[in-house]
Amino acid sequence: xxxxxxxxxxxxxxxxxxxxxxxxxxxxxxxxxxxxxxxxxxxxxxxxxxxxxxxxxxxxxxxxxxxxxxxxxxxxxxxxxxxxxxxxxxxxxxxxxxxxxxxxxxxxxxxxxxxxxxxxxxxxxxxxxxxxxxxxxxxxxxxxxxxxxxxxxxxxxxxxxxxxxxxxxxxxxxxxxxxxxxxxxxxxxxxxxxxxxxxxxxxxxxxxxxxxxx
Length: 214
Known about the structure:
This protein has 214 residues and is α+β, with helices and mostly antiparallel strands. It has one domain (2-212): Acetylcholine Binding Protein, Chain: A, CATH 2.70.170. It contains four helices and eleven strands, in the order αββααββββββββαβ. It has helices at residues 2-10, 55-62, 75-89, 181-188; strands spanning 28-38, 44-53, 96-100, 103-104, 111-118, 121-134, 138-143, 150-154, 160-163, 170-174, 207-212. Strands 1, 2, 5, 6, 8 and 9 form a six-stranded mixed β-sheet that branches. A five-stranded antiparallel β-sheet has the order 4-3-7-11-10, with no helix packed on it.
C-alpha cells in the first residue's frame, strides 16, 4: 500500500520506489492549510485543503513532466498529475476524518482540485464536500496517515480558517504530540517500503481542529 501511495503522488512523473533514497518513516512531508466552508444557511458544506509537499518529493514528482518554460509548471501542465493524485487518494479516505456533533461525516467526491508549483514545491488544492451539508454545533476534523508514511503538519500561520461560518463559531487547532527519541529510533529501524506494524500508529500524530458554534 505504501508503494502505491508513493506512486499516487508521483503520478505521471513515473517515480518508482527504488528511485527514492531509503528513508525512515515518514517518507513524505506535507505542510497544510485547511478551510472549513459553510453554506449560506449556516450548514457545514465541506473542507478545502491546500497541501504543500517537501521540495525533495516535489522534485521527484515533476521529473519528466512536459513544460513550456524550464523551471515553471502551469496549472494546465500539472492537470493530469492532479487527476491521478485525487483519484488515488480515495483509497486512503483523503487522510481526512471528521465528525459532526460526534457523528462520523461522509464526504462526496472531491472537486475544484489542481496543482500549483511554487518555490520548487508542489501544492495540491482540493475541496472535499460533505455528502449532505448539515447544521451542527460542533465539528472535529483530523488529518493524518494511519501508517505514518506521510507526515502532515499545519502551517505556522493561518493554518485553519472558517468560510461563511455563523456568527460566534470558533476554531481551535491541536498540533500532534512531539516525537520521542525512542519512537524515532523505532521508526528508523523499519525498512523503506515496509509498513509500520500497527497501521493506526499515525493517529497518535493527528492534526486536529475543533469548531464550536453557539
